[in-house]
Write a structure and sequence with these properties.
single chain, 346 residues, five-stranded mixed sheet, globular
Length: 346
Amino acid sequence: MLIKNKERGFFMASTVKSVKPTKQLTLTNLPSRRVVQKTYIDFDNYTVYALQQYGVGDTKNAVLSSGSFSSLGQSEPVSMGNPMVLKNFGHGETLEKFDNPYESGNWFWIATGANYDTPYITKNGDKIYWAHQIGIVKYEPNGQVDYSQVRRISSVSSLTKSGKPFGKLKRTDGALAANGRLIIWSQATDNSMYISCYESKAVLKRMYEASQLYLSGTDKIFHTSYKSNGALVSNKEFTHHLPWNSNQGLEFSNGNMVYITGGAYGANEAPHILKSDWAFKNYGTVSLSLSSTEQANVETEAPQLGEGSISNPDGNTSADYVYVTLVFHTSPDYTNCIYSVPKSAF
């Protein structure tokens, strides 16, 4: 139905549909007591990966872990292990597995490079340093890597039509469609935003050709159409409202549909998932229906579009769902879960 929805300063008409989610997995034995920012389910290999901040108090580090599961739709507990410490990666909501034609192993697109200039101050007074670059990392169980050692895109604020910065960068995140298209969303300190879409294969090729590990957002590959041996598909200012006025994570489909989650802890905000076409002219929001106790304690994190053919008890398969990480602020530790809603709910 069409309702008026007030979301932290925005007052807009939008389609918001309430849907009861299904708990798919519960993550246990995580290497960090911080919330899980992003999960990635490898449906082909029955493996889930989890990205968290790492350390006590002010921290610029993150940690990536993994665990195996046997089924979906049964609230199965998944014991996470094999942590990899990501030094100075900062706070990001990006974790997208991909096949790297240049190197073997389990590779991910990831937000990286802690932004020292614009930390976010939490209610506890801790500083969170947003990631301000987009890079790739090879998952090395029980290893560690510094952000300066990974291939990455720098000067993200210059991923604009003019090739000039749209503002002083505060944070950035991205998402990868199954067909290889990569979107990069960025926000400046004045809260203006930009979003761009690229053919990731062309970007990756240029990253490996570069003489250094970082590839500037001013590089011509980002400003030349993919039809003319570049990588650019489209870019523009992002002026659409965010769900609950926050970006908790992105996802991108082969049909150029953008998914954005929103919902902060402590504001009694039901988890929202916005789905929109690239033009942001046709869009709708699914609101996850939780109990009053759950909603009071929930924090919404990043989404993932389901793939594969893992059966669910309701007769559907894993490809029929949108998955989203929900963190419940329980005591003494957080409860980190992966829920799902049908793609048909949007």
